[in-house]
Write a structure and sequence with these properties.
single chain; alpha+beta; five-stranded antiparallel β-sheet
Length: 173
């Protein structure tokens, strides 16, 4: 809990305690209790996060992107390791391609990994011949929201190597 939230909650509890304290030997009036209850409830609600659905999805997108990039980094490192047999490389490549829901040529390639709510994947932009990747994003979509996280050059290469077998031009034919 953040410091500001903790102070608001403690202040709210103090106010509620004061509202319920006896006044002149008599328990506080119902109106006084109600007033302090409303104030306390407002303080509790105002201390919670007010992130919009878009901000929430952007946060989820960044987290999922980081997890997927970490996995792809490890997988592509294994595939590039001289100790990894050709048979194992083929198996890893097949497993990666089985994850793909769709790959859609758009003068860009949209690699969809999941769909429904939520869905995610990658969108890669290529030169006019479809041979050189210019940029890419990891995207995340849930009901009525959409977020993207740009890929670094290294991440862009990992996505191409893992999901397109290093040959994106094949999808433009």
């Amino acid at each position: 809990m953040h410091g500001r939230s903790r102070v608001k909650r403690l202040l709210g509890l103090l106010l509620l305690t004061l509202a319920l304290r006896p006044c002149g030997g008599v328990i506080a009036s119902t109106a006084r209790q109600f007033y302090f209850f409303i104030l306390f409830t407002f303080m509790i609600r105002s201390s919670t996060s007010s992130a919009s659905p878009q901000e929430r999805d952007e946060c989820i997108c960044r987290k999922r992107h980081a997890e997927k990039m970490d996995r792809l980094r490890r997988v592509t490192a294994r595939m590039g390791d001289a100790k990894t047999s050709d048979e194992k490389r083929d198996k890893i490549g097949d497993e990666l391609r089985e994850e793909i829901l769709s790959v859609e040529p758009l003068r860009a390639l949209k690699i969809t990994l999941s769909w429904g709510g939520p869905s995610d994947g990658y969108q890669l932009l290529f030169d006019k011949d479809g041979e050189e990747a210019l940029s890419g994003v990891y995207w995340y979509a849930d009901w009525f929201t959409y977020a993207e996280t740009p890929l670094s050059r290294e991440e862009l290469q990992w996505v191409q190597d893992a999901y397109l077998a290093g040959e994106p031009s094949l999808y433009f034919q």
